[in-house]
Amino acid sequence: MVVLWHSIIFVAPPALVGFFPALAGILKAQSKEAKAEALEQVKAVLELLEEALKDCGKGGAFCGGERIGYVDIAFGSYGGWVSVVESMGEVKLLDEERSLGLVGWAERFCSHEAVKDVMPEMEKLIKFANK
């Protein structure tokens, strides 16, 4: 439990602060160099999240074990936007080679009974992003 709280309080928030702007930066980039820089920022955060998932989940299906918790919901709120950036930016952010744990976690999270009916459709997010 101490590792979980450490990850929530000290690791996740600083990493996530720059995550959404970096995601948006992939789409807003005016040059290949700017896009590559934003992509590297996102991948660095995803690597931190992959490690935090290993530490916190302790082999369970979700961040805190076998049940969805606060951290899963916080991280899960970014899932749709990651898919939007992958689609619109023509990049691959989550892949089984670099982030196997996150890929599996995302699939379990998005298909969970408590989540699947409330996750926004990617088409709606893309429409919103294009405004």
TrEMBL record:
It comes from the Eukaryota. Residues 1-131 form the GST C-terminal domain. GO terms for biological process: glutathione metabolic process. The lineage of its organism: Eukaryota, Viridiplantae, Streptophyta, Embryophyta, Tracheophyta. The chain crosses the membrane at residues 6-27. InterPro entries: Glutathione-S-Trfase_C-like, Glutathione-S-Trfase_C_sf, GST_C, GST_C_Tau, Omega/Tau-like. CDD domains: GST_C_Tau (cd03185). The keyword Membrane applies. GO terms for cellular component: cytoplasm. This is GST C-terminal domain-containing protein. GO terms for molecular function: glutathione transferase activity. The keyword Transmembrane helix applies. Keywords: Membrane, Transmembrane, Transmembrane helix. It comes from Stephania japonica. Coiled coil: none annotated.
